[in-house]
Amino acid sequence: MEGQLHRLIEELGQLNPLWAYGLLVISAVLENLIPPVPGDTVVVFSAYLVGRGVLEIGPVYLATCFGGTLGFMAMYYLGFSQGRAFFAGRRGRFFASESVARAEEWLARYGVLLVLANRFLSGIRSVIAISAGIGGMSWKKVAVCGGVSMAVWNGLLLYVGLLVGQNWEKVGEFLAQYNRILVAILAIVGLIVLSRWWRRRNTKGDLTI
């Protein structure tokens, strides 16, 4: 999928930049709706096209931030309109009920700080948006915090992409490694939380006997 997107962006960049900016908006939206879409890699690749003079940095930045925030809010609305029951019993890699429940717990503990950090938490960004909607968090607060997170993250990606130039693929490799490490950390944290919950549950059970 990444190779196809890269070829498409390059072809559009050779024709009319407006098509490339439109594709950036679409890819940023789809990254939230369909997590396998490599939104971060596309942002870095667009920085490479900026360095080649194919695209302009301003429109690239605005397109990726607008599209990402729009997709994030679409997931928020899904959670807000459908509620927890819509995700109950769901399995699979994306939007599983366990992931939504875990994100709800984190939102209850960290609130808007988690929404502010969502772009740095690859793999659970959309789940955070869904959980914020389920929890009835203010859409204005979610939009502002999600937009700020998007602006900071995309700014960093574009900056790094411009620095590495034609070696932009190395950034993609780093992002993949970052995602793997982050998933491992989140899994460990989840196991710790589950372990503590299990111990408290057993302790309460012992007291009632």
Tell me what the structure shows.
The chain is mainly alpha-helical. The protein has one domain (2-208). It contains nine helices and no strands. The chain has helices at 2-15, 17-33, 39-51, 57-82, 97-110, 112-116, 125-134, 139-164, 168-208. The model has no long low-confidence stretch (mean pLDDT 76).
Helices, strands, pairings?
Elements: H1 2-15, H2 17-33, H3 39-51, H4 57-82, H5 97-110, H6 112-116, H7 125-134, H8 139-164, H9 168-208
Helix pairs in contact: 1-2, 1-3, 2-3, 2-4, 3-4, 3-8, 3-9, 4-7, 4-8, 5-7
Rounded to the nearest angstrom, the radius of gyration is 19 Å
Number of helices: 9
Q: Briefly note the structural class of the backbone.
A: mainly alpha
As for the number of domains, it is 1
Spans of 5+ residues with little confidence (pLDDT < 50)?
none
- For the report, how would you describe the main beta sheet? none
In whole angstroms, how far apart are the ends?
Answer: 57 Å
Q: Which descriptor suits the 3D outline?
A: elongated
Query: What sequence of helices (H) and strands (E) makes up the elements?
Result: HHHHHHHHH
Beta-strand proportion? under 5%
Q: What is the mean pLDDT?
A: 76
Helical residue percent band: over 70%
Count of DSSP strands: 0
